[in-house]
Amino acid sequence: MIKFIKKAVWVAVAAPKTVLKTAPKTVLKTAPKVVLKTAPKVVLKTAATAAATAVANAVSTAVANAVATAAIAIAGVTNAVATAAEAIADVANAVATAAVETAAVASVAVALTLIVLLHTFAPAVTAQAAVSAISPVLTAQAAVSAISPVLSVQATLQTLVITGDGVERETRFTIDEIKAMNGYISQNAYSAWNTWPSKRTYYARGVALAELLRLAGLKSNATTVNVATAPEMDGSAGYNMTFLLSDLLRERYTFEGVKSAVPAILAFKLGERSFSDMDDTDIRLIFGQLAEQEQTTAGFVQSVRTITVTRDPAPRLPPPEASVKKLSDGRYEVTLKSGQASAKVYYTTDGATPTVNSKMYNISAPQWQPELNAPFTAAGDVRVKAIAVASGFINSEVLSFTPATLNSANGTVPGSSSAAPAQTSTRPLSPTPARASRPSPTPAPMPAQTPTLDSTGAEDTPRVILDGKTLSFDVPPTIINNRTLVPLRAIFEEMGAKVEWNNTTQTVTATKGGIVVVLTIGSLSPTVNGNVIPIDQPGMIVDGRTLAPLRFVAEAFGGVVEWDGATNTAIITTK
Asked: Residues with Cβ < 8 Å from 194, sequence gap 6 or more?
């Protein structure tokens, strides 16, 4: 926009003078004398709203007619602001070098300059008033047609809209309003990786996304967020990215220097060398990483205009696909991929459940360096586990197999053929059926099997220790979508909280001291004292008991939780 204004000012100040000096004699003879005498002065005075009256008095009816004709001709132009600015500059240059030999074109350049400056420096001037000030004989229809592309684009550039059924009300913010939210503005260095892959660092200042959503009345059952740019001038949709609300607002980090938590922000200042290097930028979404090499830059949406929050159920990615090839030395070459183009596949070969901190298989986008996404080798009895992760999706179930077993099953398995549906957890919700379904200690030989989604038996049920005491539950903790869910009431009451259940709204309310915790079954947005604490696995009812994510339950009343993977134990400390 700055570039656009500079070019418009150049046209206003320099072009008329150059025309007077260099235009061919035909221009000087045919252009109305009033243009030659008054246009430069008028242009220089149009940086404020009062210039509208000055221009109206200065321009003759003859010039007004020429401007009207030119403005109507320009009405069909629907280029983007940058393109329009270049076009104006080209016309000005042509006039300045006497390439144009008619007074009408010179008048067009002046008219465009006046309109742009009027609206830039006096935004309150309407489309009709801007053109009417230049030429009282122009009709309202011609006025709007002449400058509506410029006005509509500029208006769009000034406003951010938060909408959707996941908020209580549609809310609009101007860039100036965003910059004035001093209590919610932060400045951080954001580490990031792109899909080449290469490391980037962004120095950014902006307002917290969570605060803007709060002001729009974020609903407790909101699930997804779509962040979009303005539509293109031809009416087509701009760039957009969809995120899980819980994923975008969860605790994320910068790994620039010491690892520290950073909020998701809508930045209005940005630099890539230092904080002192930051310049004003069009609104850009910036957020931290979950892991040091998580590739986040594709989600840094530029020129954000619309944020749509919905309550639509979030889709789940299917598990990755795996194939193996036996090598001459007896080992196997393992290939992994996801059916979702944007998904990243993480895997382990030590039996551990993969996370975003595990090895990434497809480290480079295929259009950049596909050779980096090479198969790996493993012994036939190595337990390989893999998950698919992508923005806007719930993580896939875990695919688990040994290369030798997979080779016996024809060497390839798509994620969709795994033993359990993608939408259903394969971990038991109760230990009883799990015990009944497990094979005896000396099972009969079984045929080769295709990989299955990761599952555990009853002996793998997580344990919970609270302030040194091992808790027992009538419904045991379980693991869903790689998240440990624990009985909420039992733990809250052990912490000394009072727990109430509203069967109509399917809501748990727990209170202790001045802290009020509210969790609704199926919601990803529980609250603590009215503040949304996003979670990525909703609470659920199992055998009449409410189970909720371990970390949320532990930390809601100020506890600290540690996970002992060797013993499958959650250790909560509140004292």
From this structure: 200, 295, 297, 298
DSSP string, 136-160: TTS-HHHHHHHHHHHHHHHHHHTEE
Give the whole-angstrom CA distance, residue 188 versus residue 259: 12
Point out which residues pair with 517 in neighbouring strands.
510, 528
Non-local CB neighbours of 443 within 8 Å, separated by 6+ positions = none
Q: Is 75 helix (H, G, I), strand (E, B) or coil?
A: coil
Query: Taking all residues of the chain, what is their mean pLDDT, rounded to a whole number?
Result: 73
- Its CATH architecture, for the domain 321-427+447-453, is Sandwich (2.60)
**What are the φ/ψ torsions at residue 424 (nearest 5 degrees)?**
-120, 130
| CB-based contacts of 426, cutoff 8 Å, min separation 6 | 397, 419, 420, 452, 453, 454, 455
What are the structure tokens assigned to 38, written together? 């008054």
Domain boundaries, the chain: 2-157, 160-310, 321-427+447-453, 458-573
pLDDT at 462: 83
31-45, 470-484, 500-514 — most confident range: 500-514
Looking at the domain that runs over 458-573, which CATH code has it been given?
A: 3.30.457.10
Specify the CATH number of the domain 160-310. Answer: 3.90.420.10
Residue appearing with tokens 């801007």 = 130
CA 345, 347, 351 angle in degrees (round to 5)? 155
- Per-residue pLDDT of 168-203, as tens digits, reads 999 999 999 999 998 889 999 999 999 889 999 999
What does the pLDDT look like over 32-64, one tens digit per residue?
A: 444 444 444 444 344 344 444 544 454 444 444
How many CB atoms lie under 10 A from the CB of residue 167? 23
Selection from 403, 415, 306, 310 nearest residue 349 by Cα: 403
Q: Are 345 and 335 in contact (CB under 8 A)?
A: no
